[in-house]
Known about the structure:
- This protein is of the alpha+beta class.
- Helices cover about 15% and strands about 15% of the residues.
Amino acid sequence: MDSPEANSAPSRSLVGNRAGEERDDNGLKMKLVWCPPGTFTMGSPQSEQDRGDDEDQVQVLLTQGFWLGKYEVTQGEWERVMGTTPWKGEEHVQEGSLSAASCLSWEDALEFLWKLTEQERQAKRLPEGWEYTLPTEAQWEYGCRAGTTTAFSFGDSSDSLSDFAWWGGDYGNGNTQSELYAHEVGGRKPNSWGLHDMHGNVWEWCADGYELKLPGGCDPLVGEASHRVLRGGGWLDDPSGCRSALRVWISPDDRCDNLGFRVARSPVR
């Protein structure tokens, strides 16, 4: 992972100038990456191997840019905000301040983000009208794809997946049998916008409720629903589970050792 000294502090402007621009002007020194407004095709083509029935393509317009965590939220960041260690004592966990925080429900993630937002506003580092939140499903896929249209952000073949992701567990060679846990963030290559671990490591909660049909359209967000969406695949999944378009849905109160999230800093919805 880059050290705080590796890059000079970015501008305090609310918005970025280019895709992939970074900032870390928050109390956690958490690195954020600018994702500009734009249009993209969400979902997967009929020709994509292992695609799901809930991935039919839709056109999406994101009218406002947003900042997305360069890395998944770490155990150290979680502890600084929440003062708890939900993963402690779990079987498939590697403890460490830079390891991806896991064993977190959707509800846990929202509590963290609410507290972080309040702390940053009180410290005058986050203006009114902006918040820390979960990315929408559309924002997540937009950031993951980083302008690509292939099965993964690095192409259609999974041959180089281990260069970009912690994956596999019992099913593949992404991890060895002694590495069945979420790893330190940033240990694999980033996508072209500088976002790490968009494939593998921990499944990432999105803001949306789950619907079989992708919503599409302008700034889509599925609100009320009994299940919430996870994206990105985890350390236990095979390549098909780490694709850019792959969608999973579970109850918002579920906690597993492969569930985590990354933050979005965006205009209040």
